[in-house]
Amino acid sequence: MAPIAVETAPAQSSFEDISALKAQLQEIAKTDSGLILPPDNTLRRYARAGIDLSKGYPFFPPKPEFVQDVTKIREEARGDRTYVDPGTRADKEKKALFGAAKEVNDLTTHIGTEIVGLQLEDLTDQQKDELALLVAERSIVFFRDQQLTPQAQQALGVYLGDGEIERHPQVAQVPGLGGGITLIWADGRKDNSAARTQRNFRRPYPSEKLSFGWHTDLVHEPYPPGYTHLHQDTVPRVGGDTLWASGYAAYDKLSPAFKKLIDGLNGVYKSAHQYKDENDPEGGLKYVLRVHPLVRTHPVTGWKSLWVNRSHTVGIEGFDKAESDALLEYLHNIFERSTDIQVRWKWTPGTSAIWDNRTTIHTVSFDYEGERHGTRVSSLAEKPYYDPKSVSRAEALQIDGFLNGQDLPHRY
Ligand SMILES: [Fe+2]
């Protein structure tokens, strides 16, 4: 599939008076225009970028009707994708990236790094390759105070995705840019009222089963996203943090015997949305299902990562349901409850987070009211694989001492 076109952003300035633009859009929003006005900060960002909201906002592409349509769209669009991860050609010491940064701060031992003093828009290709390597190693990298247009975010995503980003046919998007810039914005959802009423303090995540919202994006795809970039342009003053957990470190929490048990197994992963079934029109809505390795090897680091998430991993191939439920419950708990392998991020307006969707789960803390608006670009990666010769992160880095996962004597 050919790379999608990326438009160039107009020059930026720091201060814009958006009052006239806002008044004009408010008039349009009163008509049946499909325009929901975004927050002021977002409007200012869009005005700088020359994004026209007058024909409607957000943009919703048509939703596929049948589960077969979704499967076909995903597989035909991807073909036999050969993905070259930009991190594979990076200088291991990352001199171009680190040399230009004011500060590089690891946020925890196992996951998360913040880079200070760089604008993502200005990165050279060499720095982008090194950023990919850093994300591959640290699982997530943060940049505050970004002057980032959606166009530049899209272009960076296309680069990191080796020409391809996920265009999410059925979710809200930024209009007019060829697709692929999706919105994290509850107020702009078509099903907003339903979504809002389903969520409250006691049940923040809309799920039938007990859920803490932990998930990995788009795992039902044949080539799920790798590098995923969320830029939050509007955030509440307090609350709405996002948490990520490291799949490398979750894997290293397991005993050698447990690792051996799950290495090479395949999991069954379901989509977030449901669709009608052409072959069973009366059978109700169904998920798209996909089989992927439960432990995957990262093509840049060569390290193994646990690749399960409570929201979308529904079984293990070859195991009875009771067996697979028991194994998955243990793995989800290790992943979700080990606070020492997680990073919790407090957003400020204009912050970008780029994470590796191949080695993490994430969730939001729903302890906020007010507006939270962000744009997300998901770069497609390789077909997930397990290489039996690959090693864990702790083995590769020869991490010593208490981080080495030493076995403690059992007391029976
Ligand atoms: Fe997500």
From TrEMBL:
Glycoprotein found in the keyword field: no
InterPro entries: AtsK-like (IPR051323), TauD-like_sf (IPR042098), TauD/TfdA-like (IPR003819)
Domain of life of the organism encoding this protein: Eukaryota
Domain TauD/TfdA-like residue range list: 104-377
Transmembrane parts of this sequence: none
Keyword terms, alphabetized: Dioxygenase, Iron, Metal-binding, Oxidoreductase
Keyword Protein biosynthesis annotated: no
Family label: Belongs to the TfdA dioxygenase family.
Descriptive protein name: TauD/TfdA-like domain-containing protein
Lineage of the organism: Eukaryota, Fungi, Dikarya, Basidiomycota, Agaricomycotina
